[in-house]
C-alpha cells in the first residue's frame, strides 16, 4: 500500500540528534546536550578527532572484519560500551530497560549509571544476557555504597565504574543558560535522607547533597576493598593520575572529561589518550569517551591505545528517537562505519589497529616535506 513504507534509519549519528531534538521537551534536550562553561571542551572532544587522518592500506584481504574484543573476560561484538548516563526515562518511558535490550542485542557493553530511572535489578531482568557494568557515584552514606555494590554484584554486573571527576558541584550550561535535569525524576539508587527539603534549595544543590564530594584515593581504596569486581576509574585525564591508578592496583581507567560537562577548558580526550596509554605501560585497561560520533572515531581511539570506547549522548538521541530500536540503529551505524574504516586501513581484526594508521594534522606538513 502506498505511503506505508517505513522510512530508512538515519545514516549518521548527527541525524539522530536532530530527530531526538524534535521529540524531546526543550529542558530535557538542554540537560542531555549541556556542557560546562562555554562548551569549548564539549565541542573540542568531537573536533579533535578530525585532527587525525587515517592512512589507507590497500591490497589486503579484508573480506571479513573481526571487530570482537574481550573486556574483563566478556566478548563484545565490537569495541563499544554505552557510557553511564542519568535518567533515560526522560528520553523514553522504557528508559534504561530499552537501552539495555538494544545493547544486549548488539552485544556491546552497558555501564548502568547510579542515576538511572530504573533499579539495577529491573534493568538486568529486561536484558539478562548483556554485559553490564555498574557505575558508582559515591554517596556520603558508606553503608548505602556498600549495599549498591552488593546489589550490582548480585544482579550480575561484571565490573564497577567509579566516577572520579566530580570534586565539586558543577555549573552545567547550554546556550549560556544553566541546564539541570528536570525534577520529575525517579532515582532508585540514590538516597536523600539528610538533603535539604526539596524546593528550599536549587535542584542542583539538592541532587549534589547526596554525593560524597570531594572523593579521594582513600575512597578508591574503599571501593576496591568493598567489591570483588574489577574497578575502573572514569574521569582520568593525566598521566600522573593514571600512574597512581596502576600503583593502587586498579583494573582499568576511562580517559574522560565527562563529555565536557565538568570543567571547560580541559583538553579533548583523544588528545590526552596517548600520554595516558604510555604512562600505564599496559598494566591496566584503558578506555576513552567524549565526542565519539563515527566508526572512524572508534578506529582512531583504538589506534591510540584504547581497548574500547564509551558512547554517551548519541545513545540518548537514539533512545529519544525510537526507544530500543533507535539505540540499536545508533549502534549499527557505528558498527557499519567501523567495519568500512577497518577495511580501508587494511585491518581484518582489532589487533591490526595500531598507531601506524594515523597521521596527526600538525604533522601533515612535516610528513609531506620529509618526503620531498
Ligand atoms: C545526560 C548525561 C548524563 C550523564 N550522566 C553520567 C553519570 O551518571 N555518570 C557518569 O559518570 N557520567 C555521566 N555522564 C557522562 C558520560 O558518561 C560520558 O562521559 C560522556 O557523555 C561522554 O561524552 P559524549 O556524550 O560526547 O559521548 C553523563 C553525560 C550526559 C550527556
Ligand atoms: C538526575 C541527576 C543527574 C546527576 C548527574 C549525572 C551526570 O553525571 C551528568 O553529567 O548529568
TrEMBL record:
Keywords, comma-separated and alphabetical: Flavoprotein, FMN, Oxidoreductase
Domain FMN hydroxy acid dehydrogenase intervals: 5-363
Keyword flag Cell division: no
Catalytic activity field: 2-hydroxyoctanoate + O2 = 2-oxooctanoate + H2O2; a (2S)-2-hydroxycarboxylate + O2 = a 2-oxocarboxylate + H2O2
CDD domains: alpha_hydroxyacid_oxid_FMN
Domain of life: Eukaryota
Record-annotated active site: 258
Cellular component, GO, one term: peroxisomal matrix
Family matches, as InterPro entries: Aldolase_TIM, Alpha-hydoxy_acid_DH_FMN, FMN-dep_DH, FMN_HAD, FMN_hydac_DH_AS
Documented EC number(s): 1.1.3.15
Gene symbol of the encoding locus: HAO1
Cofactor(s) it depends on: FMN
Protein family according to the UniProt entry: Belongs to the FMN-dependent alpha-hydroxy acid dehydrogenase family.
Residues that hold FMN according to the record: 84-86, 113, 163, 234, 256, 258, 289-293, 312-313
A GO biological process held by the record: fatty acid alpha-oxidation
Top-level enzyme category: oxidoreductase
UniProt name for this protein: (S)-2-hydroxy-acid oxidase
Organism encoding this protein: Branchiostoma lanceolatum (Common lancelet)
MF terms (GO), sorted A to Z: (S)-2-hydroxy-acid oxidase activity; FMN binding
Residues annotated as binding glyoxylate: 31, 261
Pfam families to which the protein is assigned, alphabetical: FMN_dh
